[in-house]
Q: What sequence folds into this?
């Protein structure tokens, strides 16, 4: 089984302590990510809620469990829902006055077409498949029967 | 069903068949040549594509001809754009939130 990972990393002006709060306070998480009942406690089980996506067999609820908690440096939780059984990881490194944030969403099953679609769709930009689809759709529209 | 479409386009050979059909209608024989595959193997792929509604078949004399029906793909493309950049957007929102809020 091949597993795929989405990765981002970028600089923030704010200190690791400030960024940590945004990542681990339920009200603050809800402001930039999704409604949740997160508690910064190892082993805590919580959910993220978003709109259901029946096409992806996803009821909109992601079931999570905190599996890594090292303030203000490391945070990880499982992210399970619909076709996904994945892990989300944040790593914070001091960078001058600010923070370098490393984000990782891993465990997408490359052998499962629906999961691969989620992976490609949630990752950076259009995948090759997305591009192919675009050109296919364009070709078909230009060629009505 | 969308699941059939996902499965159909998950296979690289079937995606190449769709690419070929995107340009024009093709006879079954024309689809065998580029793939170095047997006629039955190509027929099997075409069957999967037909079941997913991505390809239509018609007979012209003794020949079977295939053409693309991209309508199911449009649905899938819609999902891609819906999900596209999910994390990119969320992380951008995190940056914005941090910049706008009091510490």
A:
């Amino acid at each position: 089984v091949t597993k795929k990972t989405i990765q981002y990393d970028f600089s923030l002006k704010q200190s690791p302590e400030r960024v940590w709060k945004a990542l681990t306070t339920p009200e603050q998480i809800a402001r930039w990510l999704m409604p949740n009942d997160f508690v910064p406690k190892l082993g805590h089980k919580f959910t993220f809620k978003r709109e259901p996506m029946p096409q992806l067999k996803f009821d909109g609820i992601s079931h999570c469990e905190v599996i890594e908690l090292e303030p203000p440096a490391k945070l990880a939780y499982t992210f399970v829902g619909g076709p996904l059984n994945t892990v989300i990881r944040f790593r914070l490194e001091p960078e001058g006055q600010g923070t370098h944030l490393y984000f990782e969403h891993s465990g997408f099953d490359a052998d499962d077409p629906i999961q691969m679609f989620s992976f490609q769709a949630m990752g950076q930009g259009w995948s090759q498949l997305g591009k192919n689809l675009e050109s296919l759709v364009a070709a078909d529209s230009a060629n009505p029967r | 069903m969308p699941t059939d479409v996902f499965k159909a386009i998950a296979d690289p050979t079937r995606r190449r068949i769709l690419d070929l059909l995107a340009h024009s209608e093709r006879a079954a024989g024309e689809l065998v040549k580029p793939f170095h595959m047997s006629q039955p193997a190509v027929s099997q792929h075409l069957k999967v594509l037909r079941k997913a509604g991505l390809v239509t078949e018609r007979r012209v004399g003794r020949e079977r001809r295939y053409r693309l029906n991209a309508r199911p793909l449009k649905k899938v493309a819609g999902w891609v754009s819906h999900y596209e950049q999910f994390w990119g957007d969320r992380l951008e929102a995190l940056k914005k939130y941090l910049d706008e809020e009091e510490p």
Summary: The two ends of chain A are 42 Å apart (CA to CA). Residues 6 and 105 of chain A are 5 Å apart (CA to CA). Chain A has a mean pLDDT of 78. The longest strand of chain A covers residues 84-95.
